[in-house]
Amino acid sequence: VMTVYFVQLDCKVRCMETDEADLFFLIHGSDSIKPEDFTDMKQFMLDIIHKFKIGVDRVRVSVVQYGYAPQTVFSITQYTTNKDVEAAIKRMTLIRELQTVTGKALEFIKDRFKEIDQSDKNRAQRFLITITDQKSEDDVSIPASELRQRGVVVYSIGVEKADHSEMFQIAGDLDRMFYTDNYDALTAIKNKVLRDMCSKEAFSPLYFSSACSKLEVADIIFLIDGSRSIYFKDFITMKVFMETLINKTQVGENRVQFGVIQFSTQTQLEFQLNQYYDKDKLMQAVGDIQQLEGLTSTGKALNFTAKYFDEAQGGRPHERQYLIVITDGEAQDEVYTPAKAIRDKGITVFAIGVYNANNSQLVDIAGSQDQVYHVENFDALGSLEKLISFESCCTGILLKLRRQFPKYRKQQAGLRAQQRL
């Protein structure tokens, strides 16, 4: 009991001392929500803001409710005291719209943050808490990704019929994705959200961007497994991993170039190194990748990939070049020879194995055990100490991915069982 009390007290003190932050609540207001559930949702928001000091130069709060069209309940500058914000939340009424268009609502929130940037670029802390109990009727991945690119820390809370895949796409981080069967349980989620909001990592959403900025010029190709052994939600995880790394680098013709190749039975070029110099378009291209399914022909894929580092295909052989291979299974063909041919061109290869990936094959691909990562193996975290210059950029991402995959696997166990049927 004492330990829990201390954590909550510590969180409260640090949050109360926060100089400046902007907090948006984006809440689902469709006809599917019962009056008592709406009351629970309002109480959740009241509990959250109670931990902060609200004011013009402290924490500012806004609430947006949506169904089909988002509606501002009150703006970020409308109320400047805890008392006024709490009263406004208590007065809220449910809009009771029939549709659930979450992507459109996220776009609306993104525009509000753009307005804040125009008037006050120095407000470092930015938070968005979304609550929904339905699957969206439009795409959420792109607007959510764009929000995170702006430095917004996004929490995705799903209730009842909320879609787990969409929740993950919204948060972009498994530690900021929460699900509960009913609105009564929001109280339990509250403390988890607050602890993360009060953490140093949450207050520094770009906490490893400086390391990535050191990677001034490089060619990076992701070779990703799209075979049928990869479950849909894990495929999304791979895309989020790529988006996260891309977002922390300086993309450009004379800076860092990215390409993506997907493989299963066949190998498919998603886009080559010189195709996207605009980060927003690059991130959208990653989000648009569709899983191939099929078998795991990794050797064939490596052979296919080699030429895309060449100058004729947009590569820059005189600069640093990296290949990141992500797979969860055993290759059904030989990988050593095509992988060595890539390394012999001076390309550094990293192999990330998920779940039951074959370690000996991963070593054959990367050329060294030091450049092989099993994202579910907590005991192997020490190997990250040996990262070379490129890895200093993605160490934080790899650490987080290692922590998250087992947790994510537990959360999705039931869904996977259904997919196998």
Automatic annotation (TrEMBL):
Chief location: secreted
Pfam families (alphabetical): VWA
SUPFAM superfamilies xrefs: vWA-like
PROSITE patterns: VWFA (PS50234)
One GO cellular component term noted in the UniProt record for this chain: extracellular region
Keywords: Extracellular matrix, Glycoprotein, Hydroxylation, Repeat, Secreted, Signal
Name listed for the protein in its UniProt record: VWFA domain-containing protein
